[in-house]
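Limitations
The structure tokens in this dataset are predictions for the assembled complex, not deposited experimental models. Users should treat interface geometry with appropriate caution, especially where small molecules or nucleic acid strands are included. An illustrative entry is reproduced here so readers can see what is and is not provided.
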Amino acid sequence: MKIGFIGLGKMGSGIAANLLKAGHEVTVFNRTPGKDESLVKQGAQRAAQIADACRGEAVLTMLADDPAVESVVFGAGGIADSMGKGAIHVSLSTISVALSQKLTTAHAERTGQLFIAAAGADDAIDACLPLFEAFGQRTYRFGNHPPDANLVKLSGNFLITSVIESLAEAMALVGKAGLDQHHYLDFLTSSLFAIPIYKNYGAMIADKKFVPAGFSAPLGFKDNRLVLAAAENLRVPMPLATLIYNRFLTLLAQGGESLDWSAISLLAAEDAGLEKKAA
Amino acid sequence: MKIGFIGLGKMGSGIAANLLKAGHEVTVFNRTPGKDESLVKQGAQRAAQIADACRGEAVLTMLADDPAVESVVFGAGGIADSMGKGAIHVSLSTISVALSQKLTTAHAERTGQLFIAAAGADDAIDACLPLFEAFGQRTYRFGNHPPDANLVKLSGNFLITSVIESLAEAMALVGKAGLDQHHYLDFLTSSLFAIPIYKNYGAMIADKKFVPAGFSAPLGFKDNRLVLAAAENLRVPMPLATLIYNRFLTLLAQGGESLDWSAISLLAAEDAGLEKKAA
Amino acid sequence: MKIGFIGLGKMGSGIAANLLKAGHEVTVFNRTPGKDESLVKQGAQRAAQIADACRGEAVLTMLADDPAVESVVFGAGGIADSMGKGAIHVSLSTISVALSQKLTTAHAERTGQLFIAAAGADDAIDACLPLFEAFGQRTYRFGNHPPDANLVKLSGNFLITSVIESLAEAMALVGKAGLDQHHYLDFLTSSLFAIPIYKNYGAMIADKKFVPAGFSAPLGFKDNRLVLAAAENLRVPMPLATLIYNRFLTLLAQGGESLDWSAISLLAAEDAGLEKKAA
Amino acid sequence: MKIGFIGLGKMGSGIAANLLKAGHEVTVFNRTPGKDESLVKQGAQRAAQIADACRGEAVLTMLADDPAVESVVFGAGGIADSMGKGAIHVSLSTISVALSQKLTTAHAERTGQLFIAAAGADDAIDACLPLFEAFGQRTYRFGNHPPDANLVKLSGNFLITSVIESLAEAMALVGKAGLDQHHYLDFLTSSLFAIPIYKNYGAMIADKKFVPAGFSAPLGFKDNRLVLAAAENLRVPMPLATLIYNRFLTLLAQGGESLDWSAISLLAAEDAGLEKKAA
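Predicted assembly:
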């Protein structure tokens, strides 16, 4: 397929490279210049402006957050202005951006091990399947309503924060009992909880290492508010999500803006008298 | 080693068989008769009473709950009355009983894949290592204070209930949005949450199938109260554990005594207007 | 003073009458016709349209909710279009509307027993003091920032919902213990909690009488979200307010739209197995 | 009536004086000597030991906490050993002890304005009515089960902690918005919340003055745990009570043992970034 690709961060570059490798004709664009060089060497076309990346059958974006998506899509000279009739815009989930830094092995994006949650018109998704297959291991379809894919993503982030909060409380408990938190974590993640989310976030909690932020507390808070807003619209009470809401609000009130979102775990430790306040 | 083994449920029988297979001399006892037949065929001695199982270097118990342990240990003619000087009592964690029914593959106990959290006097644990190696993949030592192993077990159960609560809220959310809960779960457990806890409890939540109980709500509540009591003694606030406490109390107030502990997930669905009350 | 008065419900009519009685020249307007008759007999001028009520030194509005305020102020031919330079708009707190139906004695508004929380430019408040004195017992000034008066109002509503939730839990407790809830309430409100809020909401909880709604659950929810939004902006975690947020969301998810906001108390009773679901 | 009175603190002395004034024959005892002098001058008999106060128709105790009650009742030479057949023991609620220091006007106990929650055998209460009338304004009967009076007391303390928590959150909100907390409190307690509980605890919160403790945090925590234990037995979830449980646990984990129980309000302020940690 002839496609455009906008957003050439670590994750975006990997996906675009996979698309090239799979034989697609890819025109790349990144706001910050220079990021396209390696891809151009691999055969990509360089777009001088967003519109140049919008002349194919589809344009994919891999952007860090909602403001970036808005600006690229709806800004002057953006995708909305530039895309041809019948072309498809695929907004790749930001969860991967955040998580790729922590949770995927270094080369996952190069070996097509991603899982893709897609929602949208059936024919649009059908048309994009060759693309998805180029960089994803499997595509899950969640109906015709594009926001549903976003709901899946947001609920996934909610589940991750739940892991963080539960580990934070358990680690405060065993830590105050005098047990070694790393040893405890090793036990957990060798037995029932043997997945990277528990391993990586558990290690960050045990090490109290929240800089540099893989996914910052303000971004985590934003996603928490978005899942709560979606839940409110649907009239779904989520008491654990509101507990985490209060954690984020406390962390930010105390100066934790620059920390990783898993720094909400500091609060359980502080409440137990184990730590100084975050800021 | 010459050892006794008391408690021949599904899990206990598997462990005892492993111990026999590893060459240990095992005398077995079970309150309900008949459960020892298969083991006797494999070479075990049959104990007519508890005391007969207490004549070796160690006695292992694999019992369902605290009252059973108390009765076997402190009852008339129990272990405390019968054990020789220097002999060691090893109380195997009940978590395995509960989880084995849901979370281990059918033959895990036969292939020595268990993880063991041990706490107690160094020489006692050293003495038991040959036993642990016979049925466990790895032994984690948590200091000299036996209750610490229990704290590890209780905190593990707390983490499992946190998984249940977080899945319950996420599934209520996507369910009320009209997405297919099984498909959603399949996505989650193929990607970031690819472990049996998420798969099995997620399936129970999506199927609303809470009978027969693998681990009953009253037992789950008991462990929740025990972890909160330990946390209170240590002055460790655990707000997520108290949220789950209220879930259990609600479930039991509404007649959920005979349901699996994961039935606390019904409450998130009911709060969202998706389900009838549990009872 | 020469003033306009818009919004002639029960509370607005009482205040306007007080203003007339105090000698002010009052032009009245109400969207639904006929409500101005009694006031016109008492000496008020009838405004044919909003603009006619905007020709004096100040215009006061006493409206049920935010949409009504928005429409009257910013709609075509509204206050914003019509007010003269230097004229003052006084938006009277809707809390009084809601509470007057439950919490004030029938004639409180006629005898000037209201308490007024005012925020705005000093000279604007100074100019309005003669008005406030005509219908309020005392005016509290909360700085120059008009939204601050609103924050006071919203936080007041939060305190009322806290009373409702705490009474709901206490009444569920003593009720399930077999004590008479009315007798218990009588004890409470004769001793430490001898104020109408505890008496009136306590009686509604004991009687389970939530129709007709004095202040409806959706309006209560709206104010809860507004106080949480204000708290979020200020980075102030309010866990009790989020607990009540979840209560409202549950009540509305279960069909409680037409009930009084104090019907969130049903949920504590239901959780305890005392009541059927709200809807 | 001929009665004994044990426990001559501020509250106990006032009640005993009222009983004397009403013409009862009172024998007084206090562990710390010297506290009986003023009462002896008013006509009381001095008991040299507990048994001497147990020779009448009833013995009343007014003691600070449960250990004191236990020791006086069940200790060697205590009430249980000494009381005659048919005599009645009246354990006066400790809530009054705690609250009298903060919430009653200085002479309330002398003018018989107390409210009494009584539970017990009908004829025992009937027999004691003349006593209750001597120092209480009104006696509320809560059935034949003495613990029910205790449940009323504990639920009352729960309501007070709910007031503290709700005020703490509201005051953190308006405080961080830049409003004057005392002025805000003055507004609240002049209007909808015009009772001493809001006034006194509100002032302590605004002043951050938690020493000396009128009712200490450990005692407040004890009562919180007792109400939760009663609720657990009755299967009544009380999420607001568990929120307060976590507040107490946090306060105590951070060194607040010597502070007044209303110091749990510090935590809302600290979470908002307004205060340093308690300890």
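Some entries come with short summary sentences. For this one: The first helix of chain D runs from residue 10 to 21.
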